[in-house]
Design a protein that fits this description.
The structure is a homotetramer. The radius of gyration of chain A is 25 Å and the shape is flat. Chain A is mainly α. Chain A contains eleven helices and no strands. Chain A has two domains: 2-120, Four Helix Bundle (Hemerythrin (Met), subunit A) (Up-down Bundle), CATH 1.20.120.350; 126-232, Helix Hairpins. In chain A, helix 1 (2-9) packs across helix 2 (14-37), helix 2 (14-37) packs antiparallel against helix 3 and helix 8 (123-160) packs antiparallel against helix 10. Chain A starts with a helix and ends with a helix. Chains in contact: A-B, A-C, A-D, B-C, B-D, C-D. The interface between B and C is large, with 39 and 45 residues.
């Protein structure tokens, strides 16, 4: 069992590397199968092949989950961990609804398998740490962004409601314009046509430009901090390692 | 009265936390009520409900304002403070125009209630400080941005005026194109069609790209400075606290 | 004459502040007059008023130039300085073509007056210094950006030429698409419709996204350096001032 | 031979500077010739001139390649180096297909000549170093970006498939919308029209905005690190130079 844990969790031995790659290939396969599945003109044969590929992935994921559960040091903690739940959600709905009708919901659940990729990635921790450092700032910025988007929607509603009642009929519809404009996507399906609305958009964009650039700075400095914390920890680790080896 | 001040301003006791949440819920309610109000197809019943919700919010805001006024250490300073004015503006117009006709103006005034959210937020101070640090830079950048937008409008007017007299009829109309292009929104309602105009836009965008990225750097470094000042102040505060407790 | 120089160049005395504001108002007036001038439906009276306003601005700018020339310590250096040339270009064409026909060219020359605003601004120096620090980097980035834009144009020409011969008829036309896409403006007048072109754009945007963010980082760090150099210089200055006063 | 190497590789002597400029002009000439070549309405004379210009460039590049090969200290290493391969690829296909039919493939190969410009540029090294420092981060970010784009495509497919089956017919088609939206290009050829799709896009853009700003921060800090390493190396170099001169 300890050997199995070694194979599944440490990615240093040869065996575990093979398993690591096999699992990733399976995830990609399941993903491609799901994506191809949505093509409108598919022959019944292709559909059947996709169904079989899907089933194979499901079986192998189930085996993987059971092996991990068996090998886990603390089984309860594994089941409750983030990836334990993700792994379970990726397979459980199949068994619960097997032979039944609803397949739509499963599709979205299966997408969580994608996050498995992140599991093996060390950098994930740094980003997670940066997010923790930025927690308050990001929440504040989100609030400011949402308020700006809302106020922009109210403003444009005022200016464009009478001129374009079909496109700026309510603040809800104006919110769509507001977010598409402030994120500089600008599809071109809704845009102001009155002089007042254009002047309002002009002022809004000049100010909004600065607003959009704030998170870039926040993330940059937080990642810098997170990297420094990482370095300090890495400095500490080898020392511990030396003590361990002695 | 001191107790009341404690409840309303310090957010450490249980009572004040409840009040804090109640006020926030009220603001959100007033906001939602206002937003729903603009929907074009509303039944008279719905309108009446919204009117009552609105009235309830107004009453509670009035009570809150009077309580805050009563509890304030320096009443004159409270009335003149930013949030004192905002709170008053959120309720006063109702009483001044009650039973009268004009309701349009009030709507925009009521939006100021949104900024109440920021009041309780500590991060607000850091951003305020960062803005103070950047005051001169932001003003300069704003000037550069406006001049660039204007020059771009003059340039495109020159190139596109003859080819698209309805879209680039004057520099005022060209300014609309200019701001939509330089902020990379690009609705697609106006764009150059002449070769000269396209070459001009080409050069403008290659240069403008760099211009847009300037405030990002400014804000990032200013926030970093503001955070350092904060740290220094936080270091100073506990010492003061210790002295206070002795 | 020294007194006149003091008034025109130091902005500490009261008189010079008034002159400073008058000149700025004149620039804005000349600017607004020029902008209004382009409106298609103007009455002859309005046109005449604008002409007179224009003439007044011209006269006052001429007086200012002559006064500056008279007051300058080194007249030749003043004439050859950047703002000396700008000031001259803003007025000279009027006198050269007075009573003659061509007015179109003048318009663009007059826009240079806008840069006069920057003259009084101290921050300008910091940006100039940051640009000097970034000289090589910005040139390199510009080269990379241009090469990317060009390669993107060649790529899309390959994919879309046959499908949309009117929009992607040559690499020159593709360059327009290329710059509009890579700067994320996306007017929507030209976009790929073939699968190959869409996949190409997909890959290009994922990579191009990173490219666009490079100058932001460059400018941010250069401005930081420029500010530090400024601080060091400011520290040095007062000491020198003290020595000077002794 | 050593003299030839000096001329071709060190850009300090006069002769090598001339050669440096001649080669760059040739690259630009070949580039312009290729670009003009794609114009749809070209007279046969123009085509012939372009063909001759092309041939001349090819000959001179071949001569350059042979001279470099002759002058190289280690010929095998030169052939296997990045620019050795690029130089060969720029000329070899001509000789292999001379007088034959297929010219399309060559065109794209010839574009690699553009990267020759980077060869002489010192800054290239700094960016290369910054990329090395960011290797892991950029790979991680690329993965996150791709997963986000994919999940966005799946989400919008769910919401818009029934309403716009021609534009969101499969996840493959949705991916096009996804990348165009998340990079804020927003052509306007595909956009959500259902309320669910709009709300989904709203949430996606608010979050995606932050995602797009991450690489800016990464590149900025990595360039800063690369510059510091450069400074340390430059400090080391002169000392070595002194020792060398003694």
């Amino acid at each position: 069992r300890i050997q199995l844990r070694d194979i599944l969790e440490n990615s240093t031995t040869r065996m575990s590397k093979i398993i690591y790659w096999v699992i990733h290939c399976l995830i990609i396969t399941a993903l491609v199968s799901f994506t191809v599945h949505t093509l409108p003109e598919l022959s019944p044969t292709a559909k059947q092949i996709l169904y079989l590929v899907d089933l194979a992935c499901l079986c192998l994921f189930s085996v993987e989950y059971l092996l991990r559960l068996f090998a886990a040091e603390n089984r309860f903690r594994f089941v409750c961990s983030f990836f334990g739940i993700v792994d379970l959600l990726a397979i459980l709905p199949y068994f619960l609804t097997l032979g039944l009708f609803d397949m739509r919901v499963l599709r979205l659940l299966r997408l969580l398998q994608l996050f498995k990729v992140a599991r093996y990635n060390k950098v994930f921790k740094r980003y997670y740490r940066a997010c923790l450092l930025l927690r308050v700032d990001l929440a504040f910025f989100l609030a400011v962004a949402l308020i700006t988007v809302y106020l922009a929607a109210v403003g444009i509603y005022h200016f464009e409601n009478l001129a374009q009642p079909d496109k700026f009929g309510s603040i809800f519809q104006s919110l769509w314009w507001s977010v598409v404009t402030l994120t500089t996507v600008g599809y071109g399906d809704v845009f102001p046509i009155t002089t007042g609305g254009k002047v309002f958009t002009f002022v809004l964009l000049i100010i909004g430009l600065g607003l959009v650039s704030v998170p870039a700075g926040l993330v940059a400095s937080a990642l810098g901090e997170a990297r420094e914390i990482e370095k300090v920890e890495e400095k500490g680790k080898p020392e511990y390692g030396e003590t361990h080896e002695q």
